[in-house]
């Protein structure tokens, strides 16, 4: 027999971003000089008008939240007029950052590194009496002391890889 109970339709609740309180009629605006830098394009500077910048952390944290999903959707639709990025007021010194990142603390000292490189020089190889010296010296242009900006001389050797059908590697 049939049941007298009706099935309830499940309703999906649509999530909407929290709405910000109505803005005053004429929000205070501030002129900000901006430098737009797009990689591969010439640098262009322009002045933009920014409505009511928040200056303190308490005011910034009270601003309405917007998820990334809604942000991207609203940006594509054109509902977002401006986006402000909060950055540090102190400019970074890129030279100091590069120096700190280029040499880790546990790297070998400069003197030890120079000694190791000197032990691998042509002079050290010749003085060691190693029979490889003559063969290696024949290809000295491939192993130069300083790397040149151009390719070494062509020796007529060509490498070719033949891949046969139905092979994995």
List keywords for this structure.
9% strand, alpha+beta, 28% helix, single chain, two-stranded antiparallel sheet
Topology, number of strands: 2
Task: Give the overall form.
Answer: elongated
Q: Percent of residues in beta strands?
A: 5-15%
Low-pLDDT parts are none
The first-to-last residue Cα distance is 65 Å
The helix content is 25-40%
Order of helices and strands: EEHHHHHH
- Going by helix content, strand content and strand pairing, the class is alpha+beta
Using only C-alpha atoms, the radius of gyration works out to 33 Å
Average pLDDT figure:
70
Q: What composes the largest sheet?
A: 2 strands, antiparallel
Overview of the structural elements:
The protein has helices spanning 57-61, 68-77, 94-102, 110-119, 122-127, 132-138, and strands at residues 29-36, 44-51. With 169 residues, the protein is α+β, with helices and mostly antiparallel strands. Among the domains are: 29-77, no CATH class; 108-145, no CATH class. It has a two-stranded antiparallel ribbon with strand order 1-2. The protein is elongated.
């Amino acid at each position: 027999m049939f049941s007298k109970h009706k099935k309830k339709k499940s309703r999906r609740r649509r999530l909407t971003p929290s709405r910000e309180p109505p803005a005053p009629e004429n929000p205070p605006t501030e002129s900000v000089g901006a430098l737009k830098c797009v990689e591969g394009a010439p640098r262009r500077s322009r002045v933009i008008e920014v409505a009511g910048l928040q200056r303190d952390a308490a005011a910034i944290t009270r601003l309405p939240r917007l998820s990334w999903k809604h942000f991207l959707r609203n940006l594509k639709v054109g509902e977002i007029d401006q986006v402000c990025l909060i950055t540090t007021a102190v400019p970074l010194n890129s030279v100091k950052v590069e120096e700190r990142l280029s040499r880790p603390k546990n790297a070998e000292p400069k003197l030890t590194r120079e000694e190791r490189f000197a032990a691998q020089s042509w002079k050290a190889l010749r003085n060691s009496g190693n029979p490889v010296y003559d063969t290696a010296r024949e290809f000295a242009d491939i192993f130069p002391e300083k790397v040149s900006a151009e390719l070494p001389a062509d020796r007529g050797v060509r490498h070719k890889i033949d891949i046969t059908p139905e092979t994995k590697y």
